[in-house]
Write a structure and sequence with these properties.
about 200 residues, 7 helices, about 0% strand
Length: about 200
């Protein structure tokens, strides 16, 4: 019994460090790509970048501080958070590799100039936002306090508002008909359940 408890403690500590490493890698990658990849060429994108940068950086600082200073969680909690972070990283980089031409920053008012349907875009319309949402879910799973819960819902609301705005822009662009067909076979942030059953 004693050996089993010690093994669980060691497993929890190791997985806790893995969660911290994955969180640092994801959030550092997100910040770097946000600063160097997305286009900021109109007032909407400039506002979006200021708003999201301030809120996300504050949220990231709090989450990482809590992860670093808190006691290790039960190994099952840290394992779940690690898996979610790993999925978020995979979705994030596959989205970036699929969108070979830089996209506009969130909340941009510009008319869409491309419709990406490769890679994860074959299944979801906003895979970058999907990866962000997953990362905040993983953070909430690991930290588990009211502030991280508030950060989680705040960032999800921002991503949802931005996604809805982007979809309206597509529906009023040269891609209108193509985008309407695209929305019928994809989900906004996660694969459409209807399409999964249709494919099977």
């Amino acid at each position: 019994m004693g050996i089993s408890i010690m093994n669980d403690i060691y497993a929890g500590q190791i997985l806790h460090l893995i969660v911290i490493a994955l969180a640092c890698f994801f959030f550092a990658s997100m910040c770097y790509v946000s600063a160097t990849y997305f286009k900021v060429q109109d007032d909407g994108a400039k506002f979006g970048k200021r708003l999201i940068s301030v809120l996300a950086l504050c949220g990231i600082a709090y989450i990482l501080w809590q992860m670093i200073t808190q006691s290790s969680r039960p190994w099952s909690i840290s394992l779940l958070a690690s898996v979610i972070f790993a999925i978020a990283i995979g979705v994030f980089f596959s989205a970036k590799s699929a969108a070979t031409i830089p996209l506009d920053f969130a909340m941009s008012n510009r008319t869409p100039f491309q419709l990406v349907t490769r890679g994860p875009y074959r299944h979801v319309r906003h895979p970058f936002y999907t990866s962000y949402r997953l990362a905040w879910v993983a953070s909430l799973v690991q930290v588990q306090d009211w502030i991280s819960f508030g950060i989680f819902w705040m960032m999800l609301a921002i991503y949802l508002k931005s996604a809805i705005s982007e979809e309206k822009s597509f529906k009023n662009s040269q891609f209108k008909l193509e985008y309407l067909e695209y929305t019928n076979r994809t989900g906004m942030f996660f694969p459409s359940v209807r399409m999964i059953f249709n494919r099977t």
